[in-house]
Amino acid sequence: MNIYKHINTLHPILLFALCLFLACGKDRTYEYEEKTVRCHQMQNLMTEWYLWGDSIKDLDWQQYFAKPTDFISKLTAQSKANDKWSYCLIDTVESDPLPCGYFNHVNSYGLDVVLMSDPTGETTKQYARVVTVYANSPAERCGLQRNDFISQIDNNKMAPTVIKNLVNGRSRTLYVSHLGISADEQSFYWTDHDTVTIEKSERVAVPTVMVSRMLYDDIGYLMLTDLSHTDEITAAIRSLMTNNMYDLIIDLRLCNSGTIECVCEVANLICATDGPFLRTFWNTAKSANNQTYSISSQLSTFTSQLSLYFITSGYTQGAAEWLIHGLKAMSTGSVVVVGKTTAGQNVMLKAIPSDYYYTIYPVVAYVGDRDGDYDYAKGIDPDESINELEYAVLYPYGDIRESIINYILLNR
Q1: In whole angstroms, how far apart are CA 107 and each of 99, 155, 164, 316?
Q2: For residue 226, what are the CA distances in angstroms to 134, 162, 366, 391?
Q3: Which of these, 27, 64, 211, 220, has the minimum number of CB atoms within 10 Å of its CB?
Q4: What is the fold, at CATH topology level, of the domain defined by 111-198?
C-alpha cells in the first residue's frame, strides 16, 4: 500500500515535468520574429541608407528586443564616425529631437535658461538665468523676460535637479529676481524680486523668423530659428532689401534645423555670385544621389555683394552651418562669424518611415562646400568669439545694445 501511495504522489509531478519538457521543445521562432521584426527592419534600412551603412553588422540576438529609439544607438555605435545626429521617433508619441537647452517645442513653458551662481557674488545661491522667452508661451504670458533670474521653483531653491521642473509639467510658482548694474559697470546688485505663477506647460510654436528689422538705415537684422520655410524667410529678406541696406546680420543662435533646398534659396537671395555652392556625398550604394547645388547672381535680391555677419552659438547646427560654410568658401564679399563655435553637424539627415510605427532619421550624406570640403565636424569657429552669457545684461534679441550686435556695429 505504501508503494502505491508513493507512486500516486509522484504522478502529478511527473506529469508536470513531462508537459514542461514538451513545451520546451515547441518551436517558438514566430514569437522571436514577432518581437524583433521592428529592429530587424531598422537594421535593413540603416544598412541601405546610413552614410556608414557598411559598418552595420548583426548584433547579439538579445539586442533585437530593444525599443526602436534605443536600438538605433546600438547600430550607430558600430560606426567609427562619432555619429551624434541620427535618431528615431515613435510615430504615435510626440517628442522633440531638437531642443535648445532646456527648451522643447512639444511640451514646454516656452523658455530656455542656464544655471549659474549668484552674479552679485553676495551668496552661494544658484539661479536659472532666462536666456530666451518664446512668443505666445506660458513664460511670456506670466511676464518673464530675457535676463530674469529664477532663484526658486515652488519653494525649492535652484539646483540641477530642480531646474528640470522648468522643462514641463503643471503650473508652478517662480521666485524671480532682477539685476542692476552700477554706473561704472563694476558691480551688480538685485533691484527687486517678484513671485509669479506660470501656467501649465503646452506645445509652443516657434516662428521661423523671430526678429526682422533694420538696425540703422543701411544694416538689417534677421533672426532665424529654422531653415526649412523658404517663403517666410524670402518675404523677410525682400522686406529688408527695400531699405537699400549694405550689411545684413543673420542671427542663427537658435537655428538647429533646416533643409539643403532652403539653404540654397537663402544663399541665392543674399549672395551676388554664380556657380557651385554646396555638394553632398552619400554612401557607395547611394552615390547616384550625390549632387552639386549651384546658385545664380540673377536670383539675388542685391546687385552688389552684401557684407554678411552671422551670429552663432553652441546650438547652431546643421542647415545653419551649411549656409555659413558654403558662403565662406564662395562669397567674394565679406562673411564674418561672431559668437560661439557651432555644433559641427557637417552631415544631412533623411526621414525614413518604417512599417512599424516609427521613423528613423539617419545621417545619409556629408554636406561640403563648392570644393567638396566638409571638414567642420568640430564646428565652425567664429572670427570673433563672444560669449553673451559673460555679460551682466542680456538685452532683447535684435537690440543694438546686445553685446554681439554692438560689436558688429562698432567693427563693420
Answers
A1: 11, 23, 13, 22
A2: 14, 30, 20, 26
A3: 27
A4: Pdz3 Domain (2.30.42)
